[in-house]
Amino acid sequence: MSDATGSERAERSSRSPVAQADGGPELSSGDGGAPAADGGDGGSTARRTGMAALTFGALGVVFGDIGTSPLYALNAVFSTAGLRPDQAGVYGVISLVFWSVTIVVSIKYLLFIMRADNEGEGGIMALIALVQGIGSKRSGKVALIALGVFGAALFYGDGMITPAISVLSAVEGLEVAAPSLGGLVIPITLVVLTLLFGIQRFGTGAVGSLFGPVMCVWFGVLAVSGLVKVLGDPSILSTLSPTYAVAFFLDSPGVAFLALGGVVLTVTGAEALYADMGHFGRPPIRRAWFLIVFPALTLNYMGQGALILESPSAVSDPFFLLMPEWAQLPVVLLATLATVIASQAVISGVFSITRQAMQRGFVPRLIFRHTSGQKIGQVYSPAINSALFVAVVALVLGFGSSSNLAGAYGIAVTGTMISTTILFLVVIRSLWRKPAWVVAAGCLGFLTVDLAFFGANLPKVVEGGWFPLAVALALFAVLTTWRKGQRLLTPRREEQEGRLRDFIEEIRAMDPPIYRAPGTAVFLHAGKETTPLALRENVDHNRVLHESVVIVSIDTAGRAHLPGAECLTVDDLGHGDDGISHVTARFGFRDEPNVPEALRLPAADSLERDIDLGNVTYFLSKMTIVPTDAPGMGAWRKKLFMAISHAAASPADYYGLPGDRIVTIGSHIDL
Question: What is the pTM of this model?
Answer without folding.
Answer: 0.70
